[in-house]
Design a protein that fits this description.
Rossmann fold, alpha/beta, oxidoreductase, 322 residues
């Protein structure tokens, strides 16, 4: 008889076979659709742990109705989990903070370059029978420009390293990272307001918190130059999509590249389907290697937490960034 019962989301990013191999023979793993609070509560009744994806809401209501010991987030961000409620209920929350650092950094650079160069609109033009380099918005040189980064965690630091070969000035805004640490990565620290006044392009890698929701909005777009490219590979709610669409329509900025949206998948987003916006389906994290590491690590951390250990991926509920 297995000692522990674990329920995992049926999201394709999770690999039940890989999870079972790491969780061990003392754990019974089942898979369920967990995309609503009611579904989560129904599937996890009597379970010791749940492994969630980004689309699995774990609010206070669910935590109080269940008898979980561990919540495992298969990913970096935990904005879908009420970490404070989990701490009050003595539930350990774990995540995987570094499985896709290179992937998201690379995707951020890809969106910046492809959006800057108008790659998607050129591709659509050629597919429709066109062949005009001049058909589209003006393309500006990256060399000699400046790029601002919102938040300066591990992914942003890797992204800054990738930018180092393009001869650009890199600035960053993060209240939790000091100027000396940024300087070690060749980056200049600025307040958010000062940064958007100085840079040519803006890349957000920020987590979604009450403080960051909508922070990349109308005031930011008005401060950026008309040729600016805005990239978001952090969390969708950080960028105000309605304000972004209005800024693009008004010519306040040049284009945008988004891997994350406020609603995923989108149903009525004003930025989807535009020639001046590239949207990818929250795919920045993905590579074969990253998916393997994700399942291995979240399974290991859940197993360790169930045994009463403090795993590497433990979330400190008092952490400032939550």
């Amino acid at each position: 008889m297995p000692e522990f019962e674990v329920v995992a989301s049926d999201d394709p990013m999770l690999d039940p076979k890989g999870l079972r191999a790491v969780l061990g023979t003392d754990t019974d793993l089942s898979v369920a659709d967990l995309r609503s609070t009611d579904a989560l509560v129904a599937a996890c009744e009597g379970a010791d742990a749940v492994v969630t994806d980004v689309s699995t809401p774990v609010p206070r209501e669910a935590i109080e109705r269940l008898s979980l010991s561990v919540i495992g987030r298969a990913g970096v961000g935990v904005d879908n989990i009420d970490v404070a409620a989990a701490a009050e209920a003595d539930v350990t929350v774990v995540h995987v903070p570094d499985y896709c650092t290179d992937e998201v950094a690379t995707h951020s650079l890809t969106l910046l370059l492809s959006t800057l160069r108008g790659v998607a609109s050129y591709d659509r033009q050629v597919a429709g029978g066109g062949w005009g380099w001049e058909d589209g918005r003006a393309v500006h040189r990256l060399h000699g420009s400046s790029v601002g980064i919102v938040s300066f965690g591990p992914i942003a630091r890797r992204f800054a390293g990738l930018l180092s070969g393009f001869d650009v000035d890199v600035l960053a805004s993060d209240p939790f990272v000091d100027a000396e640490t940024m300087a070690d990565h060749g980056v200049t620290k600025r307040s958010y307001e000062a940064m958007v006044d100085e840079v040519d392009h803006l890349v957000s890698l920020a987590p979604l918190t009450p403080e960051t929701r909508g922070m990349v909005g109308a005031e930011t777009f008005a401060a950026l130059p008309e040729h600016a490219v805005v990239v978001n590979t952090g969390r969708g709610g950080v960028v105000d999509e309605a304000a972004l669409a209005e800024a693009l329509d008004a010519g306040e900025i040049g284009a945008a590249g988004l891997d994350v949206l406020d609603e995923e998948p989108p149903h009525d987003s004003p930025v989807v389907g535009r020639d001046d916006v590239i949207v990818t389906p929250h795919a920045g994290w993905y590579s074969v290697q990253a998916r393997d590491e994700l399942n291995r690590d979240v399974g290991q951390y859940v197993a360790e937490a169930l045994r009463g250990e403090r795993p590497e991926g433990w979330i400190d509920p008092s952490a400032e960034w939550l």
